[in-house]
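Hi R.,

As promised, here are both runs. First protein below:
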Amino acid sequence: MKYVSLIVFLIITIMGMAQVTWVKSPHNLVLTKTLNAYEGVAIGSPSIIQDGDTLKMLYAAGGVDSKGRISYAYSLDGIIWQKQNEATPIFDVSSEGKWDSHFLDTPDWLKDSTGYKLYYFGDNDNNSIGGSIGLATSTNGILWTRVGSEPVLLPGDSTDWDGLYIESPSVLYDGKSYFMWYSGIDKNYKVAIGVATSPDGITWTKYSGNPVIKSDSNYAWDGLSVATPTIIKKDNSFEMWYCGGSYYDMLDDNKLDTIKIGYATSSDGFVWQKYHQNPVMSTCDTPYTNIEWRGPWTPDVIFKNETYYLWYETAYGFGLATSTPTPLIAPATETYLDFAIYPNPTINSITLEISKQQETIVKVYNLQGICIKETSGKGLINIDISLLPSGIYLITTSANNWTSNTQKFIKL
């Protein structure tokens, strides 16, 4: 439940058969917090499984006592959800002194031949330092028992890419092995994604080639961090959706409030290919509604009845989007349009340095998602912003079939 980003329309494309256009449910938000002691602060990190005809969701709930717990809801259509026992958590923090006595978050679960397995982030202090991933099991998905008294996956050494803490597990069993992809945070708070494997879902071995998804160049949309993966396996291929942030997202208040979502594929779960038109979800996509402020974050995806379903976190609850696979031929050339902004912050004007020498359309948005200025040019583009009120603005570029990430600038 680490809130970031505003946004709302999804376009995700995959090689071969692709979910090209995502359509938000007109019923959004599909789940909102209950104003009680357990989730009166926030809800986040939805994790959904298909169990017979029922969709079952575990999610994180932040209480007024500053503790995080895991709650449960179920649905027949993914739109109308019923919370268990008036939103009373089904999985609580441990007793004082245990490693997960303070906060539980980022749940992910699966059902195998032995029953249900729940993987979760836990810590025993409010700063999440030393946070690890634990395991609980259940025969009915409601009553849970912790496996052992310690985490099943720990952070690395202090100098490792995941040496500060780990979170956001996404666990999959392919009939032979268990895979766990997770977010790892280093001592500089840079985030990447790694994977571990297990023969039984209990004893895990980290992949020696970690991290498997990491940040690109500083100018890139995910140049600062990649996090919160969700993975499905379909037609012998792994598909991942993950959140990314750039250095531009941190300019005004040192917070990732314009996070984006990317997409990647893999044949083995270890070597991943990022989609060439990432990000697939971005701050200035439309339509924009106030109820989805600071979303989407921590996506979770299932595929059923030839349709992709994606639930995502916002500041006010969970949204839903759907997509159906359609044939797609990937372009032969790279289609990502990088750009830099300077000076930033600024007073009267900004200059955009565009990575490709093509006529480029530039759009400036306010934080309500409204386009307030549009211009075009190539190479170096100067934009007069002297008449704009002081504040934070978002900017995107496009040229031919090239699209860009969303970046932020500050008008003083």
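And here is the second one, sequence first, then its structure tokens:
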Amino acid sequence: VGFTLSVDAMGVIVDAKTDILAVHDISKKRQTAFAEGLPAAVKGKKLSELSSIDKVGGSSLTTKSFNDALAGLKSQL
């Protein structure tokens, strides 16, 4: 799974996208549910202040992957 966050000049998240890379049906379903819920979970928040998100779309493993990737996403500012 991959993640792309778009931030404005103030560092506020204005868009969030998830790249669904799973090959198994159940994994695709979980990643799709996560992708649909991610924007609502992060839009309007400052990336620098975001440390983690709660389970999104019923997908705990994809949410964990996102939380693990946050440091890398922040380093791209």
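A quick note on the second one: The two ends are 21 Å apart (CA to CA). Let me know what you think.

Best,
J.
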